[in-house]
Amino acid sequence: MWQAVCRAGAILCAITLFTPTASAQGYFDGRETLGQARLFTNDLIGDGRDRWRSGAYGISTVRGPGWSGQLPLRMGEIMEYRFRGEVIAPASISNPAPGDRLYAGVLSVGAHTHFSWSGFEVALGADIVAMGEQTGIRHLQEVVHDTFSLQTSRVESFQVNNGFYLHGTAEIGREFSFGSGQVRPFVELQAGVETLARVGLDMTFGGYGQGGLRLRDVTTGNRISAIDSPDDHGFSLLLGGDYAWVDSSQYLPSDRGYTPQDTRYRLRAGVNYAFGHSNIFYGLTYLSEEFVGQSEGQTIGSVTVALEF
Fold first, then answer.
1. Could you read off the pLDDT of 69-84 as tens digits, one per residue?
2. Pick the CATH number of 2-16+42-306 from 1.25.40.180, 1.20.120.80, 2.40.128.140, 3.10.20.30
3. Closest CA to 217 of 289, 273, 283
4. 3-state secondary structure string, 268-296?
5. Is 104:88 a contact under the CB 8 Å cutoff?
6. Angle at CA of residue 184, ends 179 and 188, nearest 5°
7. pTM here?
8. Is 11 helix (H, G, I), strand (E, B) or coil?
9. Tens of pLDDT along 181-204?
10. What number of other Cβ atoms are within 10 A of residue 20's Cβ?
């Protein structure tokens, strides 16, 4: 039943974000850029092995009429415009083993709105996801690997088919304070390129991030600062984890013999340090096995260096 709920959520996200209404015109008057979030993720800066969820880079720009230190009550007032690129690869791109996951170059662009509803923090969004040889990601990776004398790529015939997908995401969470920390349980539904339902928990210890806006990374689940409050400074320790029930994945096509794991989980820890108008983040995330036949999980690293002078 939850599969149908996920798909319905994706359709609702798409209709909400891409269908203009007369009452929405006022939301877009006097809008400005309120902040940005960038995150680079790579297996080499995690467990040191270039495989599976190999690498990604995402950038999000948040726009709205202003930021008061808390989410607005109106949907569409605060908008996140997101662009991502990702490399998903077999354990060896020079000699992929039969049964290992297919190579996938992924590009996506989307719009997400963040607002408050009955005391809960809500994020609704939709992305258009392109995957396969058409993205040019494989050729870009070849250039990088040749430059740094890394593995030679031989996955031309070992990759996903070209495709475009509408992908919807809906998340609802609520933050509770305890002492100097905060805990935030959340529930998430996704449908499209991957269809799944997820429950999780995020914890923050430290002064950085209060009164700002954090955005969740797709691959790791890390929540990265996009809007800082005037009082943001110092260190924050971020801990989190989540558990997902998986229905399907276009990255693991069933017509080519792949079976996604029915469940998967992520465990993450990171440190954020803010100084002036700049901040630095580094985190590690453990990803459990994502497909039947994957020999083990993996640990990937994530880094943000946002310098403003």
1. 899 999 999 999 999 9
2. 2.40.128.140
3. 283
4. EEEEEEEECCEEEEEEEEEECCCECCCCC
5. yes
6. 180
7. 0.89
8. helix
9. 899 999 999 999 999 999 999 999
10. 9
